[in-house]
Amino acid sequence: MLRHVTNRILGQGLRLPATPAAVGGSGLPRMYHERVVDHYNQPRNVGSFDKNDEDVGTGLVGAPACGDVMKLQIKVDDETGKIVDACFKTFGCGSAIASSSLATEWVKGRKMEEVLTIKNTEIAKHLSLPPVKLHCSMLAEDAIKAAVKDYEDKHSK
Amino acid sequence: MYKLQTVHVQVPAEHNPNANLPNRENLITATMASKHLATSIRRFFRKPPAGTTLIHRHSLSTAAVAAAIEPLEEDSNGVTMKGVKISGRPLYLDMQATSPVDPRVLDAMLPYYLSRYGNPHSRTHLYGWESENAVESGRAQVAALINASPKEIIFTSGATESNNISTKGVMHFYKDKKRHVITTQTEHKCVLDSCRHLQQEGFDVTYLPVNPDGLVDLEKLRESIRPDTGLISVMMVNNEIGVIQPMEEIGKICKEFNVPLHTDAAQALGKIPIDVDTMNISLMSLSGHKIYGPKGIGALYMRRRPRIRVEPQMNGGGQERGIRSGTVPTPLVVGFGAACELAMKEMEYDDKRIKALQERLLNGIREKIDGVVVNGSTEKRYAGNLNLSFAYVEGESLLMGLKEVAVSSGSACTSASLEPSYVLRALGVDEDMAHTSIRYGIGRFTTEGEIDRAVELTVNQVEKLREMSPLYEMVKEGIDIKSIQWSQH
Predict the structure, then answer these.
(1) B204, B180 in Cβ contact below 8 A?
(2) Which of B90, B88, B105 is nearest to B290 (CA)?
(3) HSE value, Cβ hemisphere, 13 Å, CA-based, for A91
(4) Beta carbons of B468 and A90 less than 8 Å apart
(5) Residues of A with CB below 8 A from B392's CB?
(6) SS3 assignment, position B240
(7) What is the pLDDT, as a whole number, of residue B489?
C-alpha cells in the first residue's frame, strides 16, 4: 500500500512532460508535434507591411549567428488600440517558424496591452516544444513586445 | 497498481493495513518503504534506456512515447512516422551515411549463413576449413582493390575500430620514443576522439587547420613534424564535404621524415583508385557498408615492409595475427570481399555515371535558384558527395520540408546535435551559412528520376522558405545584413 502511495505521488509529480526524447545530442530521435508541422506546411500570415506606415509596428529580434531571426509586424487601429492585422517572417528552424506563426494568430484582434501578457510558456505548451527549443518561443514573445514597443515609439513622437 | 520495472522490494500484501502489524514488521515495512521511495525517485530521474516501456496508469503520453520505440505505420496511403506523412518511402540520397547492399553481394553471403556456417578457426572439420577458405579469398579480394598483399589485411568490425587500433594502438606501442600525433580538424569523430584520449594520457596532438577549400596545407604539415612524431593521420575522402586530400604528396612528406601515415579510407575505397605503395600508406581503415557491402565489417591495412607495429585493442584468442581477437564473421567477410571485387570492376563506370548525375543535380538547382554555395573544393572532390549551402535559409527547416528525400545536414554523426558541423566551421564558413548545409549522396543505384525529383523538391522548399525569410527580404531591399546590429538575448 505504501508502494501504491509512493508511486501515486511520484506519478503526479511527473505529470508535466519531462521529455527526455528531445534533448539535443542525447541520441534519441527528435519528434515534431503535429501542430509544428502544420504551421510549417501552412504558415499563417507570412508577409510584410510597409514599415514606414503610421499604424504599423515592427519587431525584429534574434541574430543569424544564433540561427534564429524573427520579424513580427502588427497593424494597429489607432482609436481602439486593437491589433487588426499581423504578419511575420522568420529565418530559423521549424519550431521558430511555428512559434512566430502562432504569435501572429494570437495577437490578431487583441488589444496591445493584452498581447504583452502572452508568455513564451503558453506558446511552448501549445506547440509541445521540447526543452531544447524553448528559446524559439522566447524569441516569439520578444518579437511581440518589440513590435508593440516600436508602434508606441512611433506614436509618442 | 502499476509496477516500476525491476523493483525487487517485497512489501507485504497491500490489503494488509500496516497498523495491525506487530511493531517489528512495521519497522521493516517503514524502512522498506523509505528505501523504495528512494529507489523510485532515483529511477524516475534517471533517463530510461531506449526501448523500455513504462507501464503507467496515468497518461504520461510524452514520456511514455519517448521511452517506447515508435513503430513505423505503413499503409496503402503512405508512411507515417514522427508526425509526418509521406506517400511511400523517401528517395535515398544519403550514400555517405550508408549504402544499400548490392544484391550480388547478398547472393555471395547467403550460403555462409544457411549451409556453410562453420567457424573459420575450427581446424578439425570441413565446416571450419571451408569457412577459412572463404575468409582467405575475401581477404585477397580486399587486398587486390588497394594493391596490397592479403597478409597485410586484418578484419575488424568497421572503420571506427580500425581507426582506434591505428591511432591508439600505434602510439601505445611506440610510447617510449614517440609522443606526438598530427591530424586534421576535419577528421572523422572517431579519430578526433581517439586523439583526445591520447591527449589525456599525455601525448601531444596537433590538429592541422585546412584551407577554405578543405585541403590540407602541405607547408603547415611539413612545419609541424617533430622528431618525436609517431603518426600522421589524414582521411582520404571527407565524409561530409567529399574533398579528396593529396595523398601522394602527403605520402612523400611522410617518407622524407620517416613518419608512419595512417588514412581513413572508408569513403574512398572502391570509389577512387587507391594504391598503398604510391601513396606510401602505412595504415589504412576500410569500411564495408559504404561500398554496397554488409554493415558490421571493416578492415585495417597494416604495411609489412617496413613493418608497422600496433598494440592490440581486443585481447583474446589471437585471431587475425593477434591484432584483433575474436571470431572472424565469415559471411560478412565474404560480402565485403564480393563488394570489393565488384567495386574494382565497376569503379570507372560508376564514376562516370555519378559525375553526370552530380552535374545534373547541381545544374538543376542552380538554374532555378541563386545563392547556392558548394562547400569544399570543386575540383578535388568525390563526385558522389555534394554538400550545398543555401543562403538565407535555415538547414533544419529545409530538412523538415524535404521529408520525401533522405538527405542529411552535416554528417550523420552530428545530426542529433544542434550545432553547426565542425567540418564546415573548420572550412571557415560564415556562421549564418554554417547553419544551412545539405549533403546529397549519390551512388551506384541512384537514378536520374530520383535526381530530378530531388531538384524539384529542393527548389520548391528553398523558394518557400526564402519567402518566409526576413534576411532574404532585407537583401532584396539592398540592406547589407552584416551591417545590422542584431539584438542578442
Answers:
(1) yes
(2) B105
(3) 27
(4) yes
(5) 91
(6) coil
(7) 44
**pLDDT per position as a tens digit, B71-88:** 666 666 677 776 667 778
Please give the grid coordinates belonging to residue B100: 544499400
Q: A40, B487: Cβ pair inside 8 Å?
A: no
Query: Which residue from B147, B179, B178 is spatially nearest to B301, judged by alpha carbons?
Result: B147
Question: Residues 29-58, chain B: which have Cβ within 8 Å of A?
Answer: 29, 32-33, 36-37, 40-41, 44, 47-48, 50, 56-58
pLDDT (0 to 100) of residue B130: 96
Return d(Cα A39, Cα B107) in angstroms, integer: 47
Predicted TM-score (pTM) of this structure: 0.78
Of A66, A129, A131, A130, the C-alpha closest to A100 is A129
CA distance B159 to chain A (A): 21
Q: Which runs of E-coded beta strand occur in B354-453?
A: 372-374, 385-390, 405-406, 438-441
Helical packing angle, A94-107 and A120-127, nearest 10°: 120
In this predicted model, what pLDDT tens digit does every residue of B247-276 receive, in sequence order? 999 999 999 999 999 999 999 999 999 999
Catalytic residue positions of A?
66, 136
Q: How far is A81 from chain B (nearest CA, A)?
A: 26
Is B62–A17 a contact, with Cβ atoms under 8 angstroms apart? yes
Candidate from A10, A28, A92 with C-beta closest to B40: A10
Contact between A138 and A118 (Cβ < 8 Å): no
> Which of A63, A127, A64 has its CA nearest to residue A101?
A127
* pLDDT tens digits, B408-441: 875 444 445 556 778 888 898 876 677 778 899 9
Q: Is the pLDDT of residue B44 over 70?
A: no
Cα–Cα dist B358/B386, whole Å = 7
User: What CA–CA distance (Å, rounded) separates B429 from B293?
Assistant: 34
**Residues B198-252 pLDDT 10s:** 999 999 999 999 999 999 999 999 999 999 999 999 999 999 999 999 999 999 9
Tell me if B471 and A91 make a contact (CB, 8 A cut-off).
yes
Which residue(s) pair with B205 in the sheet?
B181
In this predicted model, what pLDDT tens digit does every residue of B289-326 receive, in sequence order?
999 999 999 999 999 999 999 999 999 999 999 999 99
Mark yes or no for CB contact A32/B400 under 8 Å. Answer: yes
Reference B105, options B266, B298, B289; nearest CA is B289
* Whether residue B42 has pLDDT greater than 70: no
| Distance from C-alpha of A151 to C-alpha of A116, rounded to nearest angstrom | 13
Chain B residues with CB inside 8 Å of A12's CB?
Answer: 58
User: Collapsing DSSP states into helix, strand and coil, what is residue B215?
Assistant: coil
